[in-house]
Specification:
Radius of gyration of chain A: 21 Å
Subcellular location (chain A): Nucleus
CATH architecture of chain B: 3-Layer(aba) Sandwich
Number of helices of chain A: 5
Strand order of the largest sheet of chain B: 3-2-1-4-5-7-6
CATH superfamily of chain B: Vaccinia Virus protein VP39
Structural class of chain B: alpha/beta
Largest sheet of chain B: 7 strands, mixed
Strand content of chain A: 35-45%
Distance between the termini of chain A: 22 Å
CATH topology of the largest domain in chain A: Neuraminidase
Protein name (chain A): tRNA (guanine-N(7)-)-methyltransferase non-catalytic subunit
Oligomer: heterodimer
CATH architecture of the largest domain in chain A: 6 Propeller
Structural class of chain A: mainly beta
Function (chain A): Required for the formation of N(7)-methylguanine at position 46 (m7G46) in tRNA. In the complex, it is required to stabilize and induce conformational changes of the catalytic subunit.
Number of domains of chain B: 1
InterPro entries (chain A): Trm82 (IPR028884), WD40/YVTN_repeat-like_dom_sf (IPR015943), WD40_repeat_dom_sf (IPR036322), WD40_rpt (IPR001680)
Distance between the termini of chain B: 71 Å
Family (chain A): Belongs to the WD repeat TRM82 family.
CATH class of chain B: Alpha Beta
Helix content of chain A: 10-25%
Number of domains of chain A: 2
Order of helices and strands of chain B: HEHEHEHEHEHEHHHHE
Chain lengths: 428, 286
Amino acid sequence: MEEENDKNPETTVAPALISVHPTHKFVSAAVGSDLRVFNLQESCVVTLADESGGHKDSIRAIRYSANGQLFVSAGDDKLVKIWATDSWRCIYSVASEKRVSAVGISNDGMFVCFADKFGVMYVVDIEDHNVEDGVTVIKKGVPILSHYCSIITRLEFSPDGRFIVSSDRDFKIRVTVFPKNPVNGAHEIQSFCLGHTEFVSCLTFVGSQKYPLGLLVSGSGDSTVRLWDHTSGSLLDTCYVGAQAEFLPSDGKEEDILPAVTDLCATPDGSLVAVAIQSLPGLMLLRCNQSSKTLSVAKVVSIPGETFIPTSIGAASSAPVLWMVMGASGLHVSESASLARVRGISGFSTSASESLDLETLVLEDAEIPGGELLLQTLQGKLSIGKEAFSAAAEAVKTAMRNLLIKKQYSAERREFRKRGRNDMKGKQ
Amino acid sequence: MMEHEANANPSHSKTTGLPRKRFYRARAHSNPLSDSHFPIPVSPSQVDYSVHYPQLFPSPDKFDGSKSIEFADVGCGFGGLLISLSTVFPESLMIGMELRDKVTEYVKERILALRASNPGQYENISVVRTNSMKYIPNYFEKGQLTKMFFLFPDPHFKEKNHRRRVINLHLLDEYAYVLREGGIIYTMTDVEELGVWMNSCLKGHPLFEAVTKEELEADPVVKLLSTATEEGQKWRMLNLVPWNSGPSCPFGQEGGGAKKDGNGEGKELVEFSLHFPPLEHLPPFP
């Protein structure tokens, strides 16, 4: 029965994540409960200092602060860990009541926000983070806003720090004024960005010195990337990325579902946005024109040699390298339970967007910053069997669908389910 | 026993032409947390006014945004308040929002029947089946509404179900968003515990302030509230007839709310109306 399938192990599959330090000092990857960090500057592996022994369950969100001093990781073990990137010591551990689905750090690095699967966003005040006694401080989050019982998928601060933007499974993007003292709650809603017709999976801001307020870009399960004026909530442009790329054929039974956008990453000046899409082996690059407020497809970058469908992408503001990871934990098919493959693309920068010919280059393993040692660290191993890729891609897709897409039942099926309801038992 | 009526409209009364509640029985509670399977407008601009107010907006293309919905009755139930408000504020568009589909059907039929028997009237009210706890921003723009009604909401006594209450601190953010400055939220309940809860939520929310007593007395809506809604009428009945409620409480059949605290001694309605202040009263953003 379908019901039993809903609870199958695929729901515990967590996609691999990648995050890059803003000045390209570190690159971090999370696969399952494993957090791996590599020091790009000194080309060495970072050892994490955490007396509680790291995460116990799948990590769902990782992020560096804008100033690079903090790193936050959180996930299904209901813990938010806040790390100081100078010592890579876990300075705060925040217990959440529910599983954490998204994290954000205020631009000044004073507040960490995290959101759970029941739509509540919490804030943690970390102003006093210069504690030197070497102990992890236990903190508690304060609930400050809520998407009514809908999974919050992403949190993002606007470039000017005025707004916190949260997206959810119910197609909504909420732009809330981030108050000076957020522990009293964030009650003033600036706008709702409404237009997506499926879950909103990712958010990013594009901004530059010329346009310091920035514009919001969102990706969704409806296979579109949309550009918004987040101050008014008005939709500026929609790019139907699903209709503009060649996708791998899916397993056949779910062909009516368009491939979802899984991640977004913009260049520092906001002129290019990289888009990771389910079933697309490679990446799509969108050109974002901030004066005409439009999005258009610039190029589809294909990755030679393997079926690489990134699950997460990231870039530093100071280096023109786009980092990508593909992988998942909780797999039941390959020889090992988890898989992570890291790739890089060079030429992801401002200058590239100006010339029509985008000189983006997929880096070979030997050319990647950090070289083999980095791959060994972040991937866990150097070589990965080809068959693992497609298994991971399918598993990630199914997990995302189970988590975020609303189940549609036929009228017949709905009646059947109603009959099985506990409170109706014995009445029929 | 009612077979002889079947040839007309079996679910409508022969004498008044109005739908009869007995054919629209519904469970008293509905889970607001479950996934919705009814159509929801993607954004407020896609709410089709010609469906709701056909006489005022003859075709979907003619809608110019000149007039928009001003009142929302959240959890409108059988629509008693909407119908009373319709004639008091004939120039304002209002909509009832109800989660239970059979109840929504009833209100829809009731409005149609009223329109048919009173030409030119009741053209400004309509009803929609929706989960207003999830989709309020899909129906209304920022600052669109002037009044919102939350009358006799499901009390959700269990602590674990408190998050299902339609008035809570976080949802008030959304209500403040769709209300314009000076807009009013009306809440009413016969459950003291819920009244205290709603009052504390509204008091604790920085974007709301209490309506003054003078404003309250001058407000024509307040007088309507106790008489217009089905639940309110039940309470009037209760106050007139001194029910000495034994174990078989007579008003527990339809609304779940009255059962627990309605032991006859609750003579007064717990009533709060609160106010949405001008935004400039708020501390300025740094």
